[in-house]
Write a structure and sequence with these properties.
The protein is an all-alpha fold. It contains 16 helices and no strands. It starts with a helix and ends with a helix.
């Protein structure tokens, strides 16, 4: 496929994730009211989606190594579209949780496939740059998601916001069926045999480079998830923004994230991947600690949160392409499995954070901005620790025949 089409497909496949979360976030308070459900249960519609997303990748990865990327992508996008329709028609919060679980599992096929495609076609450094282009596309979808979700929820109701996901899924499915060409150079007929799967998982899990980059991606996503899971309640319920106004804040956040992906592509040829990540970690740490510090000092305002978070999300635009491509780079013949395990680690991190946030926000003991700002401070420290230690020690990718098999 021409590189332009590769970028289009990466953007579409990676974009299913922010659409399933960002477009839906302005609807969370409305869903809570519509079903008269406790906040923790409504929060579970997000955390359950992400847990299913992470677990399903462990299945999709070996399946894609066995049968190829194309059939997995077609199956996953078809299921994503169906689950989106079911979510929009749900008559209870329990039904919504079930459909979001199906949607998360289907989403795993698309995002896992995108990371594997990058390793199928590109080496480590070029892979990071191509991933940053795909994530720029993801950022464009995220830019549209917040304002669109806010407008749809405010004017047509929360069901319309969820129905929009079905439209996107159908369009992505049609484009993949029409233009996508298989990228897996050689299928592994043993990939689904238990002994072979265990051997591959063990080889990946023993590789220090995998852990350096996978943990960078996971901790960076943990910070983003903290914002996604709490921001609609903080900005709408606590700080008094309208749903449309909240969507515009999400637009500004996504715009800064896109700028981070462009910055990533500019810095990598000059500094190398590891030094680029180390520089970005300084922005992450500054933003996270500043958000937590201003809140503790009593500055509970929109820009006391968003100003520091812009630094945090700018660096996220560097950490994600480098982390996601770096985790699969040592495994050219098992990119699906490596992508799956990296994605699983990211989503388990998010799920654990979601459970903690749901409990804190539902008790009433920690009202206001604190779950959001303290979470950003914690993840800022964690990201900097990984970027300045593990990535610097083990981040250079060496793809050996033993590691690749």
């Amino acid at each position: 496929m021409p590189s332009g089409w590769v970028v289009v497909f990466l953007s579409l496949l990676l974009g299913v994730q922010p659409l399933a979360t960002d477009l839906y976030l302005p609807a969370l308070p409305s869903i809570t009211a519509a079903f008269a459900a406790p906040m923790a249960k409504v929060q579970a519609t997000l955390s359950a989606l992400l847990l299913a997303f992470g677990v399903a990748q462990l299945v999709w990865g070996p399946v894609s190594d066995r049968f190829g990327r194309r059939p997995v992508l077609l199956t996953g996008l078809a299921a994503y579209t169906l689950a989106s329709v079911g979510s929009a028609l749900a008559s209870s919060v329990e039904q919504l949780i079930v459909w979001r679980i199906v949607q998360g599992a289907a989403m795993g096929a698309a995002v896992m496939g995108a990371r594997a495609i990058v390793r199928d076609l590109y080496g480590p450094t070029e892979g990071a740059r191509m991933m940053s282009k795909g994530l720029s596309g993801l950022g464009l979808f995220a830019c549209a998601s917040g304002p669109l979700g806010g407008w749809l929820t405010e004017h047509l109701g929360w069901r319309a916001a969820l129905a929009a996901l079905a439209v996107f899924g159908a369009v992505a499915l049609a484009l993949v069926a029409w233009r996508f060409r298989e990228t897996l150079p050689q299928r592994n007929p043993q990939a689904l045999k238990p002994a072979e799967m265990l051997r591959i998982w063990a080889r990946i899990a023993r590789h220090p480079t995998f852990w350096a980059w996978a943990l960078l991606a996971a901790t960076s996503y943990g910070g983003l998830f903290t914002f996604l899971a709490t921001s609609s309640f903080v900005f709408i319920n606590v700080l008094g923004h309208s749903k449309t106004g909240y969507g515009l804040l999400m637009l500004s956040m996504s715009s800064v994230y896109i700028a981070g992906t462009f910055l990533c592509r500019r810095l990598i040829p000059r500094l190398g991947v590891r030094r680029t990540v180390a520089l970005a970690a300084g922005f992450t740490l500054t933003g996270g600690l500043l958000a937590a510090g201003l809140a503790l000092a009593g500055w509970h305002s929109t820009w006391a949160i968003m100003g520091p978070f812009y630094l945090f999300i700018l660096a996220h635009g560097v950490h994600q392409p480098c982390g996601q491509s770096g985790a699969v780079a040592p495994f050219p013949q098992a990119a699906g499995a490596a992508s799956a395990l990296a994605g699983f680690i990211m989503m388990v991190t998010a799920f654990g954070m979601g459970l903690w946030l749901g409990q804190r926000m539902s008790t009433g003991a920690d009202t206001g901005v604190y779950p959001l700002t303290e979470g950003l401070g914690f993840w800022g420290l964690a990201i900097a620790l990984v970027a300045w230690t593990l990535v610097q020690r083990h981040g250079e990718v060496r793809s050996t025949p033993a590691a690749a098999r």
